[in-house]
Amino acid sequence: MNRDQATHAALASTARRRVLDALTASSVALDAHAIAERLGLHVTTVRFHLDQLEHAGLARRQSEASGRRGRPRILFRADGVARDESTREQMVELLATALATRDDETDRAVEAGRRWADALHTRTTRPPSSTLVEAFDLLGFEPELDGDEIRLHGCPFRDAARSHPEVICSVHRGLIDRLLERSGSGTSAHLTPFVEPRLCTVALAASRTA
Fold first, then answer.
1. Residue 11 lies in a domain
2. Chain centroid to CA 148: how far?
3. CA 193/CA 170 separation, integer angstroms
4. How many structural domains are present in the chain?
């Protein structure tokens, strides 16, 4: 399992994300007991999630040098990757909020998505579905191809999309449209956000010939 896969697996658990959020929000390192008390979880459960976060490179452990006899207390901090992710989400939220105040928000968001697609290095000689799956996988959307539908399980901008779907989802529509244009297949696609709380879908439709 590579780094990205390990990260997605670690963050698939709601409880584990809460543990990571507690670490990220804290200015000091925390032990399992402190996190368990804050979140109302059993300390054994918290230890399991901390191990998984450490394995994924999202948390880092350290021993407290207390100078007392016995085992040193094990403390955890969010690793730099986790803090970078938190900062990125805050920045996306700020940008989406700023763009949402403009009258031309949708057009600008779609155009941003198209430019995003042009910056990606994807192969255009593959079937359109494979091109989209490759791009979504590269961007961390955890895509699953099911017939003529791509199921997106891990949108990395989910929180901002819930607050500003007119912006974030329009960016994704521009991305999809431009990738399909570059494929030259004539295939179209329809993005449906939040068909489930953690699932969006992209329905593909082949071009109709006269």
1. yes
2. 23
3. 10
4. 2
Q: Which two tokens stand for residue 22?
A: 């507690």
Greatest Cα pair distance in the chain: 83
| Cα gap 5→55, rounded to integer Å | 12
171: in domain = yes
| Predicted local distance difference test score (pLDDT) of residue 63 | 85
- Residue 101 forms part of a structural domain: yes
User: Do residues 161 and 171 lie in contact, with contact meaning Cβ atoms separated by under 8 Å?
Assistant: no
Give the whole-angstrom CA distance, residue 41 versus residue 52.
16
In tens, the pLDDT along 57-70 reads 888 898 875 555 66
Low-confidence ranges of the chain (pLDDT < 70): 1-10, 65-70, 80-102, 122-125, 207-210
**Cβ–Cβ < 8 Å for 182, 124:** yes
Range of the domain at 106: 87-205
> Has residue 201 been placed in a domain?
yes
For the chain, give me the number of helices (H) and strands (E)?
9, 6
Crossing angle of helices 3-10 and 43-55, rounded to 10° = 160
